[in-house]
Please model this.
Amino acid sequence: KQEVTQIPAALSVPEGENLVLNCSFTDSAIYNLQWFRQDPGKGLTSLLLIQSSQREQTSGRLNASLDKSSGRSTLYIAASQPGDSATYLCALGGSQGNLIFGKGTKLSVKP
Amino acid sequence: DVKVTQSSRYLVKRTGEKVFLECVQDMDHENMFWYRQDPGLGLRLIYFSYDVKMKEKGDIPEGYSVSREKKERFSLILESASTNQTSMYLCASSWGQGARAKNIQYFGAGTRLSVL
Model:
Protein backbone atom coordinates (compact mmCIF):
# COMPACT_ATOMS: atom_id res chain seq x y z
CA LYS A 1 0.00 0.00 0.00
CA GLN A 2 1.31 3.43 -0.96
CA GLU A 3 2.56 5.51 1.96
CA VAL A 4 3.43 9.18 1.72
CA THR A 5 5.70 10.88 4.26
CA GLN A 6 6.40 14.57 4.63
CA ILE A 7 9.33 15.80 6.65
CA PRO A 8 9.54 18.01 8.60
CA ALA A 9 6.06 18.21 10.12
CA ALA A 10 6.65 21.87 10.93
CA LEU A 11 9.15 24.48 9.81
CA SER A 12 9.78 28.07 10.87
CA VAL A 13 12.00 30.35 8.80
CA PRO A 14 12.76 34.08 8.60
CA GLU A 15 11.36 36.06 5.71
CA GLY A 16 13.48 35.99 2.56
CA GLU A 17 14.94 32.55 3.10
CA ASN A 18 14.84 29.90 0.39
CA LEU A 19 13.46 26.61 1.65
CA VAL A 20 12.77 23.03 0.63
CA LEU A 21 9.87 20.82 1.68
CA ASN A 22 10.27 17.08 1.29
CA CYS A 23 7.87 14.32 0.30
CA SER A 24 8.73 10.64 0.05
CA PHE A 25 6.65 7.70 -1.13
CA THR A 26 7.00 3.93 -1.06
CA ASP A 27 5.60 2.86 -4.45
CA SER A 28 7.05 4.42 -7.59
CA ALA A 29 4.07 3.36 -9.74
CA ILE A 30 2.36 6.73 -9.60
CA TYR A 31 0.44 8.68 -12.22
CA ASN A 32 1.26 12.13 -10.94
CA LEU A 33 2.15 14.12 -7.87
CA GLN A 34 0.44 17.28 -6.69
CA TRP A 35 1.50 19.87 -4.17
CA PHE A 36 -1.26 21.71 -2.36
CA ARG A 37 -1.45 24.61 0.04
CA GLN A 38 -3.98 24.72 2.87
CA ASP A 39 -4.67 27.79 5.01
CA PRO A 40 -6.13 27.23 8.51
CA GLY A 41 -9.74 26.07 8.37
CA LYS A 42 -9.84 26.27 4.59
CA GLY A 43 -9.86 23.95 1.62
CA LEU A 44 -6.88 22.97 -0.53
CA THR A 45 -5.37 25.03 -3.31
CA SER A 46 -3.42 23.19 -5.99
CA LEU A 47 0.06 24.67 -6.47
CA LEU A 48 1.80 22.36 -8.91
CA LEU A 49 1.07 19.10 -10.71
CA ILE A 50 3.89 16.90 -11.99
CA GLN A 51 3.00 14.05 -14.32
CA SER A 52 4.86 10.78 -13.86
CA SER A 53 6.83 11.41 -17.06
CA GLN A 54 8.04 14.82 -15.91
CA ARG A 55 10.95 15.76 -13.65
CA GLU A 56 9.85 19.19 -12.47
CA GLN A 57 7.33 22.01 -12.68
CA THR A 58 7.69 25.69 -11.92
CA SER A 59 5.23 28.39 -11.01
CA GLY A 60 6.55 31.77 -9.94
CA ARG A 61 8.67 31.31 -6.81
CA LEU A 62 7.74 27.63 -6.55
CA ASN A 63 9.57 24.71 -8.10
CA ALA A 64 8.60 21.09 -7.60
CA SER A 65 10.73 18.13 -8.58
CA LEU A 66 9.95 14.45 -8.90
CA ASP A 67 12.34 11.50 -8.74
CA LYS A 68 10.27 8.34 -9.05
CA SER A 69 13.23 5.99 -8.82
CA SER A 70 14.12 7.24 -5.35
CA GLY A 71 10.52 7.86 -4.29
CA ARG A 72 11.03 11.55 -3.60
CA SER A 73 9.62 14.94 -4.44
CA THR A 74 10.67 18.36 -3.22
CA LEU A 75 8.92 21.71 -3.21
CA TYR A 76 11.34 24.62 -3.37
CA ILE A 77 10.09 28.04 -2.29
CA ALA A 78 12.33 30.95 -3.19
CA ALA A 79 12.52 34.19 -1.21
CA SER A 80 9.85 33.16 1.30
CA GLN A 81 7.26 35.69 2.47
CA PRO A 82 4.93 35.79 5.50
CA GLY A 83 2.04 35.15 3.09
CA ASP A 84 3.57 31.75 2.33
CA SER A 85 2.70 30.61 5.85
CA ALA A 86 0.36 27.64 5.49
CA THR A 87 0.35 23.84 5.54
CA TYR A 88 1.79 22.27 2.39
CA LEU A 89 0.49 18.86 1.34
CA CYS A 90 1.96 16.41 -1.08
CA ALA A 91 -0.45 13.98 -2.81
CA LEU A 92 0.15 11.08 -5.18
CA GLY A 93 -2.28 10.32 -7.98
CA GLY A 94 -3.38 6.71 -8.18
CA SER A 95 -4.67 4.81 -11.19
CA GLN A 96 -8.30 5.61 -10.39
CA GLY A 97 -7.78 9.34 -10.16
CA ASN A 98 -7.85 9.35 -6.37
CA LEU A 99 -5.17 11.09 -4.33
CA ILE A 100 -3.08 9.67 -1.49
CA PHE A 101 -1.96 12.42 0.84
CA GLY A 102 0.95 13.01 3.14
CA LYS A 103 0.19 14.62 6.50
CA GLY A 104 1.69 17.92 5.50
CA THR A 105 4.39 20.36 6.54
CA LYS A 106 3.22 23.41 8.49
CA LEU A 107 5.31 26.37 7.36
CA SER A 108 5.66 29.60 9.29
CA VAL A 109 7.54 32.50 7.72
CA LYS A 110 8.47 35.16 10.27
CA PRO A 111 8.65 38.84 9.23
CA ASP B 1 -12.51 30.40 -12.67
CA VAL B 2 -13.02 26.90 -11.31
CA LYS B 3 -15.45 26.49 -8.46
CA VAL B 4 -16.32 23.68 -6.08
CA THR B 5 -18.97 24.73 -3.59
CA GLN B 6 -19.82 22.94 -0.38
CA SER B 7 -23.20 23.92 0.97
CA SER B 8 -22.20 24.46 4.60
CA ARG B 9 -18.97 25.65 6.22
CA TYR B 10 -20.01 24.54 9.70
CA LEU B 11 -22.58 21.99 10.77
CA VAL B 12 -23.61 20.71 14.20
CA LYS B 13 -25.69 17.53 14.40
CA ARG B 14 -26.78 15.08 17.05
CA THR B 15 -25.85 11.42 17.30
CA GLY B 16 -28.18 9.25 15.23
CA GLU B 17 -29.26 12.02 12.85
CA LYS B 18 -29.13 11.52 9.10
CA VAL B 19 -26.76 14.10 7.66
CA PHE B 20 -26.38 15.30 4.08
CA LEU B 21 -23.27 17.11 2.88
CA GLU B 22 -23.66 18.67 -0.54
CA CYS B 23 -21.03 19.51 -3.11
CA VAL B 24 -21.54 21.26 -6.44
CA GLN B 25 -18.98 21.95 -9.16
CA ASP B 26 -19.47 24.22 -12.15
CA MET B 27 -16.67 22.90 -14.34
CA ASP B 28 -18.49 19.99 -16.01
CA HIS B 29 -16.03 17.60 -14.35
CA GLU B 30 -16.65 13.88 -14.63
CA ASN B 31 -14.91 12.89 -11.38
CA MET B 32 -15.89 13.89 -7.88
CA PHE B 33 -14.42 12.88 -4.52
CA TRP B 34 -15.19 13.07 -0.81
CA TYR B 35 -12.35 13.15 1.75
CA ARG B 36 -12.25 13.64 5.48
CA GLN B 37 -9.38 15.36 7.26
CA ASP B 38 -8.42 14.65 10.85
CA PRO B 39 -5.45 15.86 12.92
CA GLY B 40 -2.64 13.34 12.83
CA LEU B 41 -4.37 11.25 10.15
CA GLY B 42 -4.34 13.63 7.22
CA LEU B 43 -6.84 13.40 4.35
CA ARG B 44 -8.48 10.07 3.66
CA LEU B 45 -10.71 9.16 0.73
CA ILE B 46 -14.28 8.15 1.60
CA TYR B 47 -16.00 7.73 -1.77
CA PHE B 48 -15.57 8.86 -5.33
CA SER B 49 -17.59 8.92 -8.52
CA TYR B 50 -16.62 8.83 -12.19
CA ASP B 51 -20.00 9.63 -13.66
CA VAL B 52 -23.64 10.15 -12.86
CA LYS B 53 -25.02 7.29 -10.78
CA MET B 54 -21.55 5.75 -10.47
CA LYS B 55 -19.78 5.39 -7.13
CA GLU B 56 -16.67 3.69 -5.81
CA LYS B 57 -15.56 3.07 -2.24
CA GLY B 58 -12.45 4.76 -1.02
CA ASP B 59 -10.32 3.86 1.98
CA ILE B 60 -12.87 4.55 4.72
CA PRO B 61 -16.44 4.13 3.38
CA GLU B 62 -17.96 2.59 6.52
CA GLY B 63 -20.81 4.65 7.92
CA TYR B 64 -21.15 6.72 4.76
CA SER B 65 -23.01 6.55 1.47
CA VAL B 66 -23.07 8.85 -1.56
CA SER B 67 -25.42 9.98 -4.26
CA ARG B 68 -24.73 11.40 -7.69
CA GLU B 69 -27.94 12.01 -9.57
CA LYS B 70 -26.59 14.92 -11.62
CA LYS B 71 -23.11 15.45 -13.02
CA GLU B 72 -22.47 18.64 -11.07
CA ARG B 73 -23.62 17.42 -7.65
CA PHE B 74 -22.13 14.81 -5.33
CA SER B 75 -23.71 14.24 -1.93
CA LEU B 76 -22.18 12.53 1.09
CA ILE B 77 -24.69 10.93 3.45
CA LEU B 78 -24.13 9.92 7.04
CA GLU B 79 -26.96 7.47 7.61
CA SER B 80 -26.77 7.67 11.41
CA ALA B 81 -24.21 10.19 12.57
CA SER B 82 -21.80 9.18 15.31
CA THR B 83 -19.33 11.21 17.35
CA ASN B 84 -16.37 9.60 15.57
CA GLN B 85 -17.60 11.22 12.36
CA THR B 86 -16.81 14.66 13.73
CA SER B 87 -14.31 15.92 11.17
CA MET B 88 -13.53 18.31 8.33
CA TYR B 89 -15.07 17.05 5.08
CA LEU B 90 -13.60 18.10 1.76
CA CYS B 91 -15.09 17.64 -1.68
CA ALA B 92 -13.02 17.68 -4.87
CA SER B 93 -13.55 17.32 -8.59
CA SER B 94 -11.39 16.67 -11.63
CA TRP B 95 -11.69 16.43 -15.38
CA GLY B 96 -11.34 13.39 -17.53
CA GLN B 97 -12.46 9.84 -18.02
CA GLY B 98 -9.84 7.86 -19.86
CA ALA B 99 -7.17 10.17 -18.53
CA ARG B 100 -8.83 10.74 -15.17
CA ALA B 101 -5.70 9.98 -13.23
CA LYS B 102 -3.72 12.77 -14.84
CA ASN B 103 -5.61 15.86 -13.91
CA ILE B 104 -5.64 18.43 -11.17
CA GLN B 105 -8.18 18.00 -8.40
CA TYR B 106 -9.98 21.15 -7.32
CA PHE B 107 -11.19 21.35 -3.76
CA GLY B 108 -14.07 23.05 -2.00
CA ALA B 109 -13.62 25.11 1.16
CA GLY B 110 -14.65 22.22 3.40
CA THR B 111 -17.45 21.51 5.87
CA ARG B 112 -16.53 21.23 9.53
CA LEU B 113 -19.01 18.78 11.03
CA SER B 114 -19.48 18.32 14.75
CA VAL B 115 -21.59 15.41 15.97
CA LEU B 116 -22.68 15.79 19.59
Q: What stands out?
A: The two ends of chain B are 37 Å apart (CA to CA). Chain B touches chain A through 29 residues (CB under 8 Å). Chain B has no helices and eleven strands.
